[in-house]
Amino acid sequence: MRILVVGDSYVPVEVFAEGLARLASSHELTYLPIDQSRPFDPATASEQRIREFAGDPEQVAAALDGHEVLVVHGAPVTDQVLAAPGLRLVCCARGGPVNVDTASATERGIPVVTTPGKNAESVADQAMAFMVMLARRFPEAQRFLAEGHQAGGSTFEGAQFFGHDLTGHTLGLVGFGNVGRRVAARARAFGMRILVHDPYVGHDADGDVEWVDSLPELLGRSDVVSVHARATADNARLFDAAAFAAMKPGSYFLNTARETLVDERALADALASGQLAGAALDVVDPQEAAGPHPLLRHPNVILTPHIGGATHETLLRGVEMIAAEIDRFAAGEPLLNVANPAVLQR
Questions:
Q1: What's the alpha-carbon Rg for the chain, to the nearest Å?
Q2: Which of 160, 185, 205, 328 holds its CA 20 to 30 A away from the CA of 34?
Q3: Where would I find the H helices in 53-199?
């Protein structure tokens, strides 16, 4: 098969080439670095259905020229691209193909495969790092030094930053999918007790955790609450004022999932009142005003700019998942991660 691979600044062609190298002996691979400087103003209905893309779909469409498989990360895949003669499969190396017009792909009978869970190990690592940093009051200690105080060798200097061990404390996981399960495994190694609330997962998924049907009960029993739920229309602002009020006084809150799950104003109020001892978030609502995020006014808050999956291993893992899907497609075997399953029935 002829395969066009389009790299971008997040997943460059070099990473794609490494992860797809084993396909070179059986298929013809063409690599294209997308030009992200080209101006593109979405105008058609298809172009307006996509988001978080990089580049101009016209460049992708022009490069296809008889290729049967298109591999992208963030390049725009609009109806113009999907109309390319001979295109049979689109592979998007991310969990959700927001830069692909999947509706148009379905209409044209083209499967779109993705790479769900590619960042699960990396996000789970970050969640554990957040727990350690909050429990040991790293943000406050770092600010102490940034303000010019000296770091000496005296035991007594640490007296103002007494924190907690993770061992013996209770972790409440909201969501028990790819990431939640891995966080549980890591937390067990730290000696934590683990509660889980996930109405979409069977209770036999993991016998080493305690399943809690009521979210308020989990919140009230947990020393640390870590969110790993998939964002849906039904759970927008799941963590609101009532949820934070239900949490154990002095507990910690972590969100490495999606920003839509959290009411940030309610979170700020819970921090200001002392209801929460700290919070760490990898995702936050976009701010209209320039300057530091308002949550950073609190000394016990950690914010990172959506770096949960930003590791070299995550990128390569995603590309290798794409290679496996191409192998299945070439062999006529069922595809595993199809974002538009309706196309398979056609």
A1: 23
A2: 328
A3: 57-64, 79-82, 102-107, 120-135, 138-146, 178-189
Question: C-alpha angle with apex 239: 233 to 244, nearest 5 degrees?
Answer: 165
Q: Which of 143, 306, 312, 346 is catalytic?
A: 306
Residues 42, 92, single domain; the answer is yes
Domain count, the chain: 2
112, 231: one domain: no
On whether both 144 and 114 belong to a single domain, the answer is no
CA proximity to 120, closest of 52, 184, 201, 45: 184
Query: Does residue 94 carry a catalytic annotation?
Result: no
Q: How far is 163 from 121, CA to CA, in rounded Å?
A: 26
CA distance linking residue 210 with residue 226, whole number of Å: 15
Do residues 111 and 130 both lie within one domain? Answer: no
In a shared domain, residues 156 and 82 = no
25 with 323: CB under 8 angstroms?
Answer: no
Residues 243 and 320 both lie in one domain: no
Please check whether residues 135 and 111 belong to one and the same domain. Answer: no
Active site residue 306: yes
Q: 192-221: per-residue pLDDT in tens?
A: 999 999 999 887 666 799 999 999 999 999
Enumerate the H helices of 208-253 as residue ranges. Answer: 215-221, 241-246
Beta strand 2-7 with 210-211 is unpaired
Tokens representing 6 are 């389009």
For residue range 153-174, what is the model confidence (pLDDT) as tens digits? Answer: 777 777 889 999 999 999 999 9
Give the domain extent around 27.
2-118+311-345
Task: Please tell me the pTM assigned to this model.
Answer: 0.92
- What does DSSP say about strands 301-303 and 276-281: parallel, antiparallel, or unpaired? parallel
| 305-342 pLDDT tens trace | 999 999 999 999 999 999 999 999 999 999 999 999 99
Catalytic status, residue 265: no
